[in-house]
């Protein structure tokens, strides 16, 4: 599966961006050159997105001295109503940008994993979002943020770990090895909530505590139960998505999983087993690429794809990337 943009037409230089809640990664890809990767601070979904993206574009331009023809980005918290590609096009004109593709990071996660194929992709990192794509329909499951969603995500795991520690501290829940780990982070557990509330990076910080759970999953019953619950939530999302787009009726539906949460065998193995309990012949496919690859793939997306309407575009007619795909 080709996960790169064809840069042969017009000698196009493409800046692909994966803007997530843990960090922003950008990759500058120019004809005949080795791709260069840049890391930036996480996207702030509670602030305007376009200025944050424009800052990334400007910083890459300044670091490389390279004129950037096109920007293609997958963004956590993206909505077409609030994130206008035309605004980014205008803001980045001084960097040479003449074409912009923007999509929710669920779209780029999907494309990175399965390209143009049909199926479901669960992307579980700090947050989690599931996208299922059928022949003519698309279903997004969860991805509703840490306040009202993101079940099974890194944040969800970290929050569950803290909850278990405080329950054990109060005597409301069983004792757990998670407590000793938490005490290395917080000298006084009764002040932990105040410290976290005052931390502007608390979402990422709490998500980092997911490692407490996965590290203890083989030896601690509380941690094991949290991992099992996370995996079950992710199975539920994947199965719901497949059913909603009609892919559940296939003899061998396709699923893929990406993101740091699945680095835990306790979670990934239970996730796979959960899907196979529903569809014994399910094809759980290894991801072909990353979300950053998926962002770079946006310009190549076939007009026949049901995902096409979820990509916002703005550009000038003198620049085309894989124009045949958008004809």
UniProtKB/TrEMBL annotation:
Name of the protein described by the UniProt record: ATPase BadF/BadG/BcrA/BcrD type domain-containing protein
InterPro entries: ATPase_BadF, ATPase_NBD, Euk-type_GlcNAc_Kinase
Alphabetical list of Pfam families matching this protein: BcrAD_BadFG (PF01869)
Sequence ranges assigned to domain ATPase BadF/BadG/BcrA/BcrD type in this UniProt record: 50-268
């Amino acid at each position: 599966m080709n996960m790169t943009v064809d840069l042969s037409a017009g000698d196009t230089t493409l800046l692909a961006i994966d803007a997530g809640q843990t960090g922003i990664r950008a990759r500058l890809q120019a004809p005949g050159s080795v791709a260069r990767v840049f890391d930036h601070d996480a996207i702030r979904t509670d602030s305007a997105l376009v200025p944050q993206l424009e800052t990334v574009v400007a910083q890459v331009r300044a670091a490389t001295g390279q004129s950037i023809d096109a920007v293609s980005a997958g963004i956590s918290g993206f909505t077409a109503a609030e994130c206008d590609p035309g605004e980014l096009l205008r803001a980045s004109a001084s960097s040479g940008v003449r074409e912009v593709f923007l999509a929710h990071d669920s779209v780029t996660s999907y494309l990175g994993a399965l390209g143009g194929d049909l199926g479901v992709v669960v992307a579980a990192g700090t947050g989690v979002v599931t996208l299922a794509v059928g022949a003519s329909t698309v279903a997004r499951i969860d991805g509703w943020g840490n306040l009202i969603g993101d079940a099974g995500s890194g944040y969800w795991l970290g929050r569950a770990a803290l909850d278990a520690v405080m329950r054990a501290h109060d005597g409301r829940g069983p004792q757990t090895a998670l407590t000793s780990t938490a005490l290395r982070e917080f000298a006084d557990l009764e002040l932990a909530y105040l410290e976290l509330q005052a931390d502007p990076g608390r979402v990422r910080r709490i998500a980092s505590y997911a490692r407490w759970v996965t590290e203890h999953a083989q030896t601690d019953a509380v941690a094991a139960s949290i991992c099992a619950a996370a995996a079950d939530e992710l199975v539920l999302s994947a199965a719901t998505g497949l059913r909603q787009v009609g892919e559940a009726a296939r003899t061998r539906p396709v699923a893929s999983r990406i993101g740091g949460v699945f680095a835990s065998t306790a979670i990934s193995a239970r996730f796979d087993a959960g899907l196979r309990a529903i569809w014994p012949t399910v094809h759980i496919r290894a991801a072909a690429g990353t979300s950053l690859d998926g962002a770079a793939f946006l310009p190549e997306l076939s007009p026949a794809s049901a995902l096409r309407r979820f990509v916002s575009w703005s550009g000038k007619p003198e620049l085309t990337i894989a124009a045949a795909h958008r004809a």
